[in-house]
Amino acid sequence: MSTFSEKFKTLNFDRPLDIAATASSATVERIISQGRARTLNDFAALLSPAAEAYLEPLCHLSQKLTQKHFGKTIRMFAPLYLSNECVNVCKYCGFSRHNDIPRITLDLETVEKEARILHNQGFRSILLVAGEHPKYVSNGYVEECVKRLSKFFPSIALELGPLESERYEPLVNAGCEALLVYQETYDEETYRALHTAGPKKHFHWRMDTPERAYAAGFRRLGIGALFGLHDWHKEALALASHAEHILQHCWKAQLNVSMPRMRPAKGEWEQVEFLKDHNFVQVITALRIFLPHVGITLSTREPASLRDGLAPIGITTMSAGSSTEPGGYSSFDETTFQQTREQEGEQFHIADERSPAEVAAVLNKLGYEAVWKDFDQSLIQA
Ligand code: SF4
């Protein structure tokens, strides 16, 4: 069985890219009338300029498929940043090694304090995020964090530097159920130009991380691309191919995809191409129509008004009230939900600054249920 990185070397996106540029209205209408994009070429057609004229029926179809497979629910989670220490140089990231920011790794007491704030806000699903640093973010440290938090968070996900399967196993055994790893860009040349030092330089090693995580026993996987680093059509096609591969090869896991768009951060890089809002909608609806069972995550990188508009058309998972700085939740004013100090060590600045309760209230108004807990470890214990 070949891994996705092996398969990726043989994939040729010339034909789908040509379709994404030239598909006709008739092709888009055919896909809408059949209710599914059955092939990668159909998916490509939904990214085309011709499809822009069909955004409304595409949103309707995407909404219908989402409600059929996920109901009118949105799963809520919050990121908890453990450390902003990082040995990698990623030119677009606030935590990049050479950036002059205050560096911090939370001690276990502070991790628990931050987590309790999120717990009090209603969250039962938490994403632990850390830069890649073998000294500060060791396996033992993360395992201890997971053990502490698993007492009151039934669902714990990780977003860390990629590891070997054997090093994931203790984290699964400690109570982690999900692993997220975004390829950032699927264009190898761009990847090499943006990741110039540290273990993250290894494009293919990163690409096969979800499969190593699956082998270690994670039951949810998350993949994604950071839109704004390279041509968005190519990123969307590669992301869809990656998702297809994981659905086939890691079939017991639930898969989520994410399409974060670049936000301002302390870095040395200017984005090459912003994915415009209507094209962002195109990518979300195309993914849903091609992969109806796959979860789609929307983060607080996007502004409130856009998040409210996107939630009913294909999104299944949302973060809310996020801080992207280690220790950032302790500096929120609990009454006003405003930060009481500048977030100097944040990874990027969020755009939707509403509290989790406000976001849940809006979802409710839209006819959706904000789901805070959808899993319990007792469900998988013998
Ligand atoms: S993107 Fe991740 S690996 Fe790269 S500098 Fe930021 S935290 Fe480190």
From TrEMBL:
<keyword id="KW-0479">Metal-binding</keyword>
<dbReference type="GO" id="GO:0005506">
    <property type="term" value="F:iron ion binding"/>
</dbReference>
<keyword id="KW-0949">S-adenosyl-L-methionine</keyword>
<dbReference type="InterPro" id="IPR013785">
    <property type="entry name" value="Aldolase_TIM"/>
</dbReference>
<dbReference type="InterPro" id="IPR012726">
    <property type="entry name" value="ThiH"/>
</dbReference>
<keyword id="KW-0456">Lyase</keyword>
<dbReference type="GO" id="GO:0036355">
    <property type="term" value="F:2-iminoacetate synthase activity"/>
</dbReference>
<dbReference type="Pfam" id="PF04055">
    <property type="entry name" value="Radical_SAM"/>
</dbReference>
<dbReference type="GO" id="GO:0051539">
    <property type="term" value="F:4 iron, 4 sulfur cluster binding"/>
</dbReference>
<dbReference type="Pfam" id="PF06968">
    <property type="entry name" value="BATS"/>
</dbReference>
<feature type="domain" description="Radical SAM core">
    <location>
        <begin position="72"/>
        <end position="294"/>
    </location>
</feature>
<dbReference type="InterPro" id="IPR007197">
    <property type="entry name" value="rSAM"/>
</dbReference>
<dbReference type="InterPro" id="IPR058240">
    <property type="entry name" value="rSAM_sf"/>
</dbReference>
<keyword id="KW-0004">4Fe-4S</keyword>
<keyword id="KW-0411">Iron-sulfur</keyword>
<dbReference type="InterPro" id="IPR034428">
    <property type="entry name" value="ThiH/NoCL/HydG-like"/>
</dbReference>
<dbReference type="InterPro" id="IPR010722">
    <property type="entry name" value="BATS_dom"/>
</dbReference>
<keyword id="KW-0408">Iron</keyword>
<protein>
    <submittedName>
        <fullName>2-iminoacetate synthase ThiH</fullName>
        <ecNumber>4.1.99.19</ecNumber>
    </submittedName>
</protein>
